[in-house]
Amino acid sequence: xxxCLLWSIPxxxxxxxxxxxxxxxxxxxxxxxxxxANPLLQLLCPSPGFFYFWFLQxxxxxxxxxxLHLHSRNKVQHPLAVSRHAFGxxxxxxxxxxxxxxxxxxxxxxxxxxxxxxxLQQQVFESLCNDPRPGAAIFVAQCLYVxxxxxxxxxxxxxxxxxxxRRFLKVGNxxxxxxxxxxxxxxxxxxxxxGTLVHEERILVKILELFDVSLSNIEKAMFDxxxxxxxxxxxxxxLVEQYILRLVESQSYMTAVSLLEHFSIRESGESFxxxxxxxxxxxxxxxxxxxxGKPILCTLVQEYVDRKLPKHAFDVIRQHNLRxxxxxxxxxYKESKLKKLAEQGCWDVAEARVKDDPQLLEYLVxxxxxxxxxxxxxxxxxxxxLEGFINAKALEANFPKDRYLQL
Length: 407
Prior knowledge:
By secondary structure, the chain is mainly alpha-helical. Helices cover about 65% and strands about 0% of the residues. The protein is built from 22 helices and 2 strands.
């Protein structure tokens, strides 16, 4: 119990030891110097003096108010000392204690939430290098099981430890126990689906992506078997599809699309796309169409055109190289943008955007002619060898010089 009390103090990040027989002023000075030398401590702890009293009391007194001593095998009495934070060595720290320490650090911090989040994310990343047992990936999966009991901190801390583990895995670490971690993540998915645990939908998607959970992992989590059984595989797939259907019914389209993409389920078609379009879930619709391929992408472009959303249609055409399939739509949008630039007098910008497209260059020449900008017409014709236009100088010479009304 005393160990838990000590762990609950965020200022245990101090690298120094404090013994009860030392002078109080020296302790306070050492505490202050350590705080100045440790950026994490500066950011997360309000002031060293706030915790000094508790360090002094806990290092000298037991729970019954009497001096506390530790007895070794040689029966030599040693005073209790606070030396370092438990994040420095996770080999014997449980997920619950780890998360409680994380919460205490966050709560006692005096900076803004974003700054605290960044520092804690760095601290968690470094902590994952300190040998959490039975492995970093398994340890994080266990933390995700426990996090719902922290209620208001659940979502934020979930994002924090997931991002820290993702960064940890990117540098080539954490492969120890990865198969067991996948199984734990699959069981976590099942617990969230049946309502046993409560996690935000975005967290659920990140868990599946981080641990790369597949249908086979979910099958194993459901039936606890390594043998391949067609019936078990179908049941696992049906469970996932039913959950996705629930998401669609609640209009959580982006999460539904993310799960369909993650598990490579392609059974839904245009009807699903149209449902998202009717609900104006355009980002989810584009994500789904991208996953399904060119036929659904073409349907999406046509839907945008029918709904008079030319910019959305043009973006899809440009991003997915559908210019040959929709040449008119592509050029109509580009021409509308050129016209706006011409009206603003941004001729050089307009030219830079269309210099590789002869058809759009000709349109730009026509815009210059309509605006009476004959110098630009001649310049464009000479620079890009455009033929078939009226000689600009001759046209300009035919303009009447006397523009006054003869009465």
